[in-house]
Amino acid sequence: MSKFIAQPANTLSGTLKVPGDKSISHRCIMLGSLANGVTEVSGFLQGEDALATLKAFQLMGVKIERQEDKVTIHGVGLHGLSQPHVPLDLGNSGTSMRLISGILAAQAFDTELVGDVSLSQRPMGRVINPLAEMGAVIESNAGKPPLKIRGGQSLVAIDYDLPVASAQVKSCVLLAGLYAQGQTCVNEPETTRDHTERMLNGFDYPVHTHAKKICLTGGGALTATKIQVPSDISSAAFFMVAACIAPQADITLMGVNINPTRTGVIDILQLMGGNLTVSNEREIGGELLADIRIQSSDLQGIKIPKNLIPLAIDEFPAIFIAASCAIGETVLTNAKELRVKESDRIQVMADGLNILGIENTVLEDGIKIQGGVFSKPSGTIESHHDHRISMSFAIASLRCKHAIEINGVDNVKTSFPNFVALANSAGMNLVEI
Ligand code: S3P
Question: What interactions and quaternary structure are annotated (predicted)?
């Protein structure tokens, strides 16, 4: 089990490019595999999660070649996958398991999906239920992985009200809908990331969105395309917060995806008084990109608006570090989903903040954080093998006078394999041992 030792640093500078978007990288492999023709991808995230998806499709007979961040997918069409001879191991990746379930529910063959210790604890009932309504047959371990998906079922379209605002569940149902008879619709309680819809349109498969209702009709075909994956705003978020809290900071993050369903972190940091400037907006392959300059900021505590929660769902560990460095109290409620991510991100962050002397109150569906000063850590921070917890506490070192030790940082490579190198190139002082 590896750990970070983060020595204090107080400056952050430079022009940085973070790796490709994880959500988009997963979807490139899935849709490229199901398309007719050859899909070329550049900027692919070489993180373990996206690679788990890539390997799963290789095991289902898809020829996929990769040279660093360039991937060529020889699509087999919607009905061209073949039965894998082993269970598909999706590692730490909830996105892989939930989205692939939608595809596998409609195949002619049986499959089994497994994951690591963390993924094996995550709720899958949220995808099993709508898929069962469509006619799928899936066995689980009381709603958790492993999933055994029985092939040979014919699926019917549904009009599904999402019980939680989840892009993974929406995407799972839409992917199953590609195979279902009739029009499948998903109704979202709040807008969630729309990469599946955008990318399906990019593969010439029509998806219609009216307000929070998203529909497609089964029985069509996907046509291969070229995809350039933009930088992941969820990885960029660590550097946004880092630059806001560092006493002397001026950085620019290049080519970051600013899809409006992902930009909650920018809005939240700006509401807190963060000094962020978005420029050079451009569109590439149906996704918006921009360069983002961030300078040291005097942050204020806020009440986080409810509608921004799904738009910043992965960024809360980093936002909690911003809140710890703000003047006054930050309050987050309506965010129960954070308890079922790669770890219970409310409790695990609260435990780490306690070790750094930051006053906080854990709520059932959120947290209250009183901004303050990081004191000498009263122990080692446990990340519970959650990549985003590890990186969040690493950036706290920009406001610390003492080294911070963070245990269990191995999973940083699921989403941000060069985090340590990039952080150090910008002025941080991190070692992984
Ligand atoms: C993702 C959706 C989100 C997010 C996850 C990636 C996706 O999960 O937390 O990291 O790619 O669709 P939920 O759909 O569970 O909110």
Answer: Monomer.
Best residue among 48, 100, 126, 193 to mutate for probing ligand 1, ranked by most atoms within 8 Å of CB = 193
Contact between 198 and 283 under an 8 Å Cβ cutoff? The reply is: no
232 is catalytic: no
Question: What percent of the chain is predicted at pLDDT more than 90?
Answer: 100
Position 1 pLDDT exceeds 90: no
pLDDT at 358 over 90: yes
Residues 38 and 103 in one domain: yes
Over 90: is that where the pLDDT of 308 sits?
A: yes
pTM confidence score: 0.98
Q: Are strands 183-187 and 159-161 parallel, antiparallel or unpaired?
A: parallel
Closest ligand 1 atom, residue 193 Cα: 12
> What residues are designated binding site?
22-23, 27, 94, 122, 166, 168, 314, 341, 345, 388
Please compute, for residue 138, the number of CA atoms within 13 A of its CA located in the half-sphere on the CB side: 34
Give me the CATH number covering residue 383. Answer: 3.65.10.10
176 and 47 belong to one structural domain: yes
User: Which residue type occupies 124?
Assistant: M
Q: Using the 3D structure, point to which of 228, 255, 283 is the last residue of a domain.
A: 228
The contacts of residue 303 (CB under 8 Å, 6+ apart) are 330, 331
From 21, 116, 232, 314, active-site residue: 314
Whole-angstrom distance, CA of residue 373 vs CA of residue 365? 25
- Ligand 1 atom nearest 341 alpha carbon: 9
Q: What is the arithmetic mean of pLDDT over 319-328?
A: 98
Ranges assigned E (strand) in 166-224: 183-187, 208-210, 213-217
Last residue of a domain, one of 228, 250, 268: 228
What mean pLDDT, rounded, does the chain reach? 98
Instruction: Report the domain count for the chain.
Output: 2
Q: How far apart are CA 319 and CA 322, in angstroms?
A: 5
The answer to whether the bond into 146 is cis (omega within 30° of 0) is yes
Q: Which residues line ligand 1 (CB under 6 A)?
A: 23, 95, 166-168, 171, 193, 313-314, 337
pLDDT tens, position by position, 158-183 = 999 999 999 999 999 999 999 999 99
Q: Is 39 helix (H, G, I), strand (E, B) or coil?
A: strand
Question: What pLDDT, on the 0 to 100 scale, is given for residue 369?
Answer: 99
